[in-house]
Amino acid sequence: MSDLSDYERRYLSMLDELQHAPAVEVLYEERGPVEEEIGGAAEAFTLIAEEEGVVLNTSLHRSFLRFEGLSSHWGVERAGVYLTGEFSVRHLAAAMLSPGVEPATDEPSDQELALYAELRPFDEQPRGGGGMLSALRIDPGMSMPEVWYYHATRGVFQMDLEYPEYLDALLVTKGVYGWQYLYTDVSMREIDFQGAAESIQNMLRIFPDIFPDHDYAPFAERLAERLR
User: Fold this and answer.
1) Three-class secondary structure of residue 40 per DSSP
2) Considering just the CA atoms, what is the radius of gyration of the chain in Å?
3) What would the mean pLDDT of 192-221 be, rounded to a whole number?
4) Does pTM top 0.90 for this prediction?
5) Cα distances (angstroms) measured from residue 145 to each of 41, 56, 122, 135, 208
6) Structural domain boundaries in the chain
7) Do the beta carbons of residue 160 and residue 183 sit within 8 Å?
8) Where are the beta strands (DSSP E) in the chain?
9) Cα 210 from Cα 24, distance rounded (Å)
10) Dihedral of CA 2/167/19/33: which sign?
Protein backbone atom coordinates (compact mmCIF):
# COMPACT_ATOMS: atom_id res chain seq x y z
CA MET A 1 0.00 0.00 0.00
CA SER A 2 2.92 2.35 -0.60
CA ASP A 3 1.07 4.26 -3.36
CA LEU A 4 -1.86 5.33 -1.23
CA SER A 5 -3.21 8.85 -1.61
CA ASP A 6 -3.04 11.35 1.25
CA TYR A 7 -6.76 10.90 1.85
CA GLU A 8 -6.49 7.13 1.96
CA ARG A 9 -3.70 7.47 4.50
CA ARG A 10 -5.91 9.75 6.60
CA TYR A 11 -8.52 7.02 6.77
CA LEU A 12 -6.00 4.37 7.76
CA SER A 13 -4.68 6.79 10.39
CA MET A 14 -8.21 7.09 11.73
CA LEU A 15 -8.35 3.31 12.14
CA ASP A 16 -4.98 3.51 13.90
CA GLU A 17 -6.38 6.18 16.24
CA LEU A 18 -9.16 3.82 17.26
CA GLN A 19 -6.83 0.84 17.65
CA HIS A 20 -4.20 2.69 19.68
CA ALA A 21 -6.52 4.57 22.06
CA PRO A 22 -6.49 2.67 25.39
CA ALA A 23 -10.04 3.80 26.15
CA VAL A 24 -11.45 2.35 22.93
CA GLU A 25 -12.44 -1.26 22.38
CA VAL A 26 -12.45 -2.08 18.67
CA LEU A 27 -15.10 -4.74 18.12
CA TYR A 28 -14.57 -5.15 14.37
CA GLU A 29 -12.23 -3.71 11.75
CA GLU A 30 -11.72 -4.07 8.01
CA ARG A 31 -8.84 -2.54 6.04
CA GLY A 32 -9.13 -2.81 2.28
CA PRO A 33 -7.86 -4.21 0.10
CA VAL A 34 -7.38 -1.49 -2.48
CA GLU A 35 -9.61 -2.08 -5.50
CA GLU A 36 -7.17 -2.77 -8.33
CA GLU A 37 -9.46 -3.54 -11.27
CA ILE A 38 -11.19 -0.18 -11.63
CA GLY A 39 -8.11 1.90 -10.91
CA GLY A 40 -7.87 5.44 -9.61
CA ALA A 41 -10.38 8.28 -9.52
CA ALA A 42 -10.11 9.15 -13.22
CA GLU A 43 -10.76 5.57 -14.29
CA ALA A 44 -13.61 5.12 -11.80
CA PHE A 45 -15.29 8.36 -12.84
CA THR A 46 -15.04 7.34 -16.50
CA LEU A 47 -16.71 4.01 -15.66
CA ILE A 48 -19.51 5.80 -13.76
CA ALA A 49 -20.07 8.13 -16.72
CA GLU A 50 -20.25 5.20 -19.14
CA GLU A 51 -22.51 3.03 -16.98
CA GLU A 52 -24.73 5.64 -15.32
CA GLY A 53 -24.54 8.66 -17.63
CA VAL A 54 -23.31 10.78 -14.72
CA VAL A 55 -20.25 13.02 -15.01
CA LEU A 56 -19.00 13.61 -11.48
CA ASN A 57 -17.26 16.83 -10.50
CA THR A 58 -13.49 16.39 -10.52
CA SER A 59 -13.31 18.03 -7.08
CA LEU A 60 -14.41 14.62 -5.78
CA HIS A 61 -11.01 13.21 -6.74
CA ARG A 62 -9.55 14.65 -3.53
CA SER A 63 -11.60 12.38 -1.28
CA PHE A 64 -11.63 9.33 -3.54
CA LEU A 65 -11.04 6.13 -1.56
CA ARG A 66 -10.03 3.00 -3.48
CA PHE A 67 -10.58 0.52 -0.66
CA GLU A 68 -13.08 -2.24 -1.41
CA GLY A 69 -14.16 -1.87 2.20
CA LEU A 70 -13.06 0.13 5.21
CA SER A 71 -14.89 -0.51 8.47
CA SER A 72 -14.77 -0.15 12.22
CA HIS A 73 -17.21 -0.94 15.03
CA TRP A 74 -16.02 0.31 18.40
CA GLY A 75 -17.07 1.24 21.94
CA VAL A 76 -15.84 3.45 24.79
CA GLU A 77 -16.88 3.05 28.42
CA ARG A 78 -16.00 5.88 30.74
CA ALA A 79 -17.50 7.24 33.99
CA GLY A 80 -20.71 5.28 33.59
CA VAL A 81 -21.14 6.33 29.94
CA TYR A 82 -20.99 3.86 27.05
CA LEU A 83 -20.38 5.47 23.67
CA THR A 84 -20.32 3.44 20.50
CA GLY A 85 -20.40 3.80 16.73
CA GLU A 86 -19.42 2.29 13.44
CA PHE A 87 -18.87 2.93 9.77
CA SER A 88 -18.39 0.77 6.72
CA VAL A 89 -17.34 2.84 3.72
CA ARG A 90 -17.66 1.49 0.20
CA HIS A 91 -15.66 2.32 -2.92
CA LEU A 92 -17.44 5.22 -4.68
CA ALA A 93 -17.77 3.32 -7.95
CA ALA A 94 -19.27 0.32 -6.12
CA ALA A 95 -21.79 2.64 -4.48
CA MET A 96 -22.70 4.47 -7.69
CA LEU A 97 -23.23 1.23 -9.59
CA SER A 98 -25.44 -0.37 -6.90
CA PRO A 99 -28.53 1.80 -6.39
CA GLY A 100 -31.55 1.03 -4.28
CA VAL A 101 -32.51 0.53 -0.62
CA GLU A 102 -35.55 -1.12 0.93
CA PRO A 103 -38.52 1.19 1.66
CA ALA A 104 -38.70 2.25 5.30
CA THR A 105 -42.51 2.07 5.43
CA ASP A 106 -44.94 -0.75 4.77
CA GLU A 107 -46.95 1.17 2.19
CA PRO A 108 -44.59 3.62 0.47
CA SER A 109 -45.96 6.08 -2.03
CA ASP A 110 -44.84 6.02 -5.65
CA GLN A 111 -42.70 9.09 -4.89
CA GLU A 112 -41.03 7.33 -1.97
CA LEU A 113 -40.41 4.20 -4.03
CA ALA A 114 -38.75 6.29 -6.74
CA LEU A 115 -36.50 7.98 -4.18
CA TYR A 116 -35.49 4.73 -2.46
CA ALA A 117 -34.63 3.21 -5.84
CA GLU A 118 -32.23 6.10 -6.54
CA LEU A 119 -30.27 5.87 -3.29
CA ARG A 120 -26.79 4.37 -3.53
CA PRO A 121 -25.41 3.23 -0.13
CA PHE A 122 -21.80 4.18 0.57
CA ASP A 123 -21.53 4.09 4.39
CA GLU A 124 -23.40 1.44 6.36
CA GLN A 125 -23.78 0.42 10.01
CA PRO A 126 -24.51 -3.31 9.72
CA ARG A 127 -23.41 -4.51 13.17
CA GLY A 128 -25.03 -2.23 15.71
CA GLY A 129 -26.79 0.44 13.70
CA GLY A 130 -30.17 -1.21 13.24
CA GLY A 131 -30.30 -0.78 9.48
CA MET A 132 -29.02 2.78 9.27
CA LEU A 133 -26.91 3.89 6.31
CA SER A 134 -25.83 6.87 4.27
CA ALA A 135 -26.43 6.99 0.54
CA LEU A 136 -25.84 9.12 -2.52
CA ARG A 137 -28.45 10.30 -4.99
CA ILE A 138 -27.57 11.79 -8.35
CA ASP A 139 -29.36 12.22 -11.66
CA PRO A 140 -27.86 12.72 -15.13
CA GLY A 141 -27.00 16.39 -15.44
CA MET A 142 -25.89 16.64 -11.82
CA SER A 143 -22.16 16.60 -11.10
CA MET A 144 -22.30 16.52 -7.30
CA PRO A 145 -24.38 13.84 -5.57
CA GLU A 146 -26.83 14.58 -2.80
CA VAL A 147 -26.19 12.83 0.52
CA TRP A 148 -29.10 11.13 2.32
CA TYR A 149 -29.35 9.37 5.67
CA TYR A 150 -31.61 6.32 5.85
CA HIS A 151 -33.22 4.87 8.97
CA ALA A 152 -35.03 1.55 8.64
CA THR A 153 -38.17 2.79 10.42
CA ARG A 154 -38.00 6.62 10.35
CA GLY A 155 -37.37 7.00 6.63
CA VAL A 156 -34.84 9.14 4.80
CA PHE A 157 -33.35 12.56 5.55
CA GLN A 158 -31.42 14.70 3.09
CA MET A 159 -28.17 15.90 4.63
CA ASP A 160 -26.92 19.47 4.38
CA LEU A 161 -23.42 18.64 3.23
CA GLU A 162 -21.61 17.26 0.19
CA TYR A 163 -19.98 13.86 -0.15
CA PRO A 164 -16.40 15.06 0.56
CA GLU A 165 -17.65 16.96 3.61
CA TYR A 166 -19.35 13.79 4.84
CA LEU A 167 -16.09 11.86 4.61
CA ASP A 168 -14.24 14.68 6.37
CA ALA A 169 -16.79 14.65 9.19
CA LEU A 170 -16.57 10.87 9.48
CA LEU A 171 -12.83 11.19 10.16
CA VAL A 172 -13.72 13.15 13.31
CA THR A 173 -16.94 11.48 14.49
CA LYS A 174 -15.66 7.98 13.65
CA GLY A 175 -19.22 6.86 13.06
CA VAL A 176 -20.75 7.80 16.43
CA TYR A 177 -24.34 6.66 16.08
CA GLY A 178 -26.65 9.46 15.01
CA TRP A 179 -24.05 12.05 14.03
CA GLN A 180 -25.64 12.36 10.60
CA TYR A 181 -28.75 13.97 12.13
CA LEU A 182 -26.62 17.05 12.86
CA TYR A 183 -26.80 17.77 9.12
CA THR A 184 -30.54 17.19 8.68
CA ASP A 185 -33.59 19.38 9.25
CA VAL A 186 -34.79 17.71 12.45
CA SER A 187 -35.27 18.82 16.04
CA MET A 188 -33.19 16.61 18.26
CA ARG A 189 -35.50 17.53 21.15
CA GLU A 190 -38.07 15.16 19.63
CA ILE A 191 -38.19 11.76 21.28
CA ASP A 192 -37.10 9.92 18.11
CA PHE A 193 -33.80 11.79 18.09
CA GLN A 194 -33.01 12.12 21.80
CA GLY A 195 -30.86 8.99 21.76
CA ALA A 196 -28.78 10.43 18.93
CA ALA A 197 -28.50 13.76 20.77
CA GLU A 198 -27.24 12.00 23.90
CA SER A 199 -24.72 10.02 21.84
CA ILE A 200 -23.37 13.19 20.24
CA GLN A 201 -23.24 14.98 23.61
CA ASN A 202 -21.18 12.09 24.99
CA MET A 203 -18.90 12.25 21.94
CA LEU A 204 -18.31 15.97 22.58
CA ARG A 205 -17.59 15.21 26.25
CA ILE A 206 -15.26 12.22 25.72
CA PHE A 207 -13.55 12.55 22.34
CA PRO A 208 -11.49 15.70 23.06
CA ASP A 209 -9.62 13.73 25.73
CA ILE A 210 -9.20 10.58 23.65
CA PHE A 211 -8.60 12.21 20.25
CA PRO A 212 -7.34 15.75 21.03
CA ASP A 213 -6.05 16.52 17.53
CA HIS A 214 -9.50 17.24 16.06
CA ASP A 215 -11.82 20.25 16.03
CA TYR A 216 -15.18 19.43 17.60
CA ALA A 217 -16.57 22.99 17.59
CA PRO A 218 -18.56 22.61 14.32
CA PHE A 219 -20.36 19.57 15.73
CA ALA A 220 -21.12 21.35 19.02
CA GLU A 221 -22.55 24.30 17.08
CA ARG A 222 -24.76 22.08 14.97
CA LEU A 223 -25.98 20.17 18.01
CA ALA A 224 -26.96 23.46 19.67
CA GLU A 225 -28.93 24.37 16.54
CA ARG A 226 -30.74 21.00 16.50
CA LEU A 227 -31.65 21.32 20.20
CA ARG A 228 -33.27 24.76 19.92
Assistant:
1) coil
2) 17
3) 97
4) yes
5) 16, 8, 12, 9, 31
6) 6-226
7) yes
8) 24-31, 69-78, 81-90, 120-124, 133-137, 146-151, 155-158
9) 9
10) negative
